[in-house]
Amino acid sequence: MDSKGSAKRSNPAALLPILVFLVLYLGMGIVFEYVLKIGMGFYSIPIVVVFMVALLVACLQNWKLSFDDKLAVMARGVGDKNIMTMILIFLVAGVFVGVTGRDSAEAVAYFLLSITPAWASVAVLFVAACFVSVAMGTSVGTITLITPIAVAVANVSGFSLPLCIGSVMGGAMFGDNLSFISDTTIAACNTQGCEMRDKFRANFKIALPAALVTLVLILAVSFNAGVGHLEIPEYNLLLLIPYVLVLVGGVFGLNVFVVLLVGVISGVLITLSTGTVDAMSLLSSMGSGASGMFETIMVTVLVSAMCGLIRENGGFAALLAFIRRVFKGGVGGRLGVGLLVGAMDIATANNTVAIVMAGPIAKEISQEYGITPKESASLLDTFSCVFQGIIPYGAQMLIAVSTATELGSGVSAFEIIPNLFYPFLLAVSSLVYIVLLGSRKKGK
Q1: Are 101 and 271 within 8 A, CB to CB?
Q2: pLDDT grade, residue 4 (50/70/90)?
Q3: How far are the Cα atoms of 10, 50, 297, 440 from residue 340, in angstroms, in the given order?
Q4: d(Cα 155, Cα 160) in Å, to the nearest integer?
């Protein structure tokens, strides 16, 4: 912690804006989803408006500061280089997803299904969802695209529908956690001030063991199922090139803007040359992809402003004092970061928002406990994906259930949850990583 941060007076009341947001958002979400039975109830709430209310509460605190001084504090929070970088990456990543579109993702799944034996179809769904989500950077988009294929696999085979959908959801969360263009990765890296390739390497040590065990478990569960013939539609492998370029560029540590621009340009050339879409439709898709990031950007701006006031008013100092009392040593500090973002995710049902909210606090925790930026970014992203992957009211689960229902295959969230092997194994892998890493640091 810097000298300025450590000099702040501890003031638990300064955390009130966060509490106001959580009570309003979680309370209205529960009422909409479970009392009024509104489909996708949590996502019917105008989250930007709720954050504005929380920001107003922060502005009404600390009467020693004039409103002009508070505006200056908020401007410093929003004007941080990492926040500006994050916003620009969000926009370019949105354009990339708009360019690549549905056909590219479906080509991955159909290609893998065509070259593997039918008895391995569920494992293929998991692998396909892993690849697509890493390339696209969106778990919800991956689930939307691959769930219809999972329903088709379940309908012509002896595999259960909850197993097929659970495998797709697990693969989608794998990529959400690791992708270089995932909004969670962008938020985690920029709030902690680390390079994406460094976070990827730290994250990979946690995610890969969980993914491999998941794959073995899926094969073991599905091995004896009777399988029928699955019709494979036509697909174009050229559509995979933008994904591969982005993935390779990210792994080799190229500048994220360069990587995304290469992906966008290659996607434009390939989709136009293959006749997948016409020029006007492509422009429209690019615009839709960018505009799809607007809410996330507004949340980032509002949270940055709110956290600036909370820090100024002594809220972060109070939270750190509490964490010092409860969590001890390197293991405790790392667990504190994970549980902090997990609690935010349970309350918001949005892992990106959870990371943006928890990020500034996690950074101060990390400085206090000697946690490197790449470790804290990895823990933020991983724990947010663990909780987001299993909560029954998250967008991922709601999209999967509603897509299956629209296709005439009814399934409930509580049937799918026991088949979410990857999120549960990712939690186990994360805890093992924390214990081993914390113990090793202590030994040194």
Answers
A1: yes
A2: very low
A3: 19, 20, 22, 23
A4: 9
